[in-house]
Amino acid sequence: MQFGIKEPSIGSVHQYAKRTWWLAFIYFALFLISVVGDTVVAWNSKTLVTLSQRSNVETLTLAFFFVFFLYIAFVSASGAWGFLKLLYVFSALGPNKQAKRELRKIGLLRRGRSHSEAALNKVVRAKERESETVEISIRDDFGSLGSIRFDGARIIHTDPFSDGSNTLFAFITEELNRTLKARGIDACLDVVEWKKIDDEETEKFLGLVQFACNLEKALGSTRPLWPSIELEPSDLVHLEEQLSALCPHLRSEALLPDWEYAGEHKLPIIPEPLGIISLSRTEKRVDPIASMSAALAVLGVVLVLLVVIILFPPWVPSA
Amino acid sequence: MTKSIHRSASLVLIWILLIACTGPKPSIQSSELKLVNAETSLYSVNVVVTNDSRGSGQIEVHAALQNPETGVKYKESKKLSLEPHETAAMVLFITAPIANYRPEVEVEYPIK
Fold first, then answer.
1. pLDDT single digits (tens) A185-215
2. CA–CA distance from B7 to each of A293, A307, B2 (Å)?
3. B81 chain-A contacts, CB cut-off 8 A
4. Listed residue (A165, A172, A164, A145) closest to A235, CA to CA
5. Is-cis flag, bond preceding A160, omega within 30?
6. Does the interface ipTM go beyond 0.90?
7. Phi and psi for A126 in degrees, rounded to 5?
8. Inter-chain touch B111–A50, beta carbons under 8 Å
9. In this complex, how many residue pairs, one in chain A and one in chain B, have their CB atoms less than 8 Å apart?
C-alpha cells in the first residue's frame, strides 16, 4: 500500500539500486505501451470509431486516448532513453567491469545547474563541532557526486549530477533514523518540505526554523528551541560510508529524469456529479516509482481494454 | 485462501461480462460463383458464413468480381443477422460482363 501511494522503502543501498532499475524499466514500459497504444488506436480507428458511434460512446474518447498515449510517450521518452543508456552502461563486461561501467556513466552525465534542497522536521547538529553546518561528501573511487550539507533543518545536495534526487534525502533520513535507533534514540527524522515540489512552503518552513534557532542564540538557551538531533562523529562516518556505497546507484539514477510531484489520491464513494462522499489523501511528495507505476497500470489497463474490444467486438445494434 | 477466491470470482465476473457483451465472430466457410443468366450477364455468389462466437449481431458480406483483363471490380454487399454459433447461407447477385472471374468475399463486423 505504501509502495502504491507514497514511496517504496529505500532503507538500504541494495533497495536503492533495485528502485533505480525498476524506475528505469517503468519509464521504458510506459514509452513502449504508449507507442503500441497509439499504433493500435490509429491502425484500428475505423473499427473503434464504428463501435463508439454505434454504442453511443463519445467518439472524442478515442481522440482522448490517442492524445493520452501521445502525451505519455512524450514525457516518458527521456526515461526510456535513460533505460537504454543504463543497458549500454551495464553491457560492459569482463575484468574491471565496475570501473568501465562507472566511467561510461560519468561520460554520459552532466553536472546539475542547481542544488537540490529539502526541509527536515528537526535541526541536525554535529557533536564536537564548532560549525553550525554539517557537511558530508558523497564520493567513491570514481569521483565526487557533490556533498550533503545539513544547515539547521535544511538539507542540501550540492553540486549533484543532473538536478539531484529527492530520493537521496529520503534515504538519508531512513539511514539516520536507523543509526540513531541503534543508539537507543527514537529520532523520527523526516523530510517535511521538498523545494523542487513547493519552494515557497519550504522557504516559509525553514524561515520559521531559522527564527527559532536565532531566538535560541539570543536567549542563550542551553536547550534547543526547535526539536533537534545531535549526530556523533561515528554517525557521520557511517553515513559517509553508506553514501559512498550508494554512488554507483546515484549515477545510474542521474541518467533518468527526476519527476517530483505532490500526490492526491481520491476515492469517490458516490461519484460525480453528485460527489457527496469522497475519500482523499494527499502526500507532499510521491516517489516517481509510485506515481509512474500508477500511470503504467492505467496505461496497461486502457491498452488491454482496447485490444480486447478489437479482438472480441461487442454486440452493437443493427446498422 | 480468501484472496484467491476473490481473485477467481473477479475473473469469472469479467469473463461473464465479456461473454454477455460480445458480438459475432463471422468467418467465410465457402463461396461459389455461378453464371445465372448469360443473356443478362447475371452472376450469383453463394456464400456460407459461420459465427464462431457466443455473441450475436448484424454482419455484412462483401463480394467482388474483378475482371482480370480490365481490372474493373463489380461489387455487391448484403447484411445478415447471425445468432450464436449459427451457420447461414446467402446469395449475392452481381451483374457483370461475361469473363473469367474469381470471387473475392469478405465479411465485416462491426459494419462500418
1. 888 999 999 998 999 999 999 999 999 999 9
2. 21, 22, 9
3. 318
4. A172
5. no
6. no
7. -110, 135
8. yes
9. 40
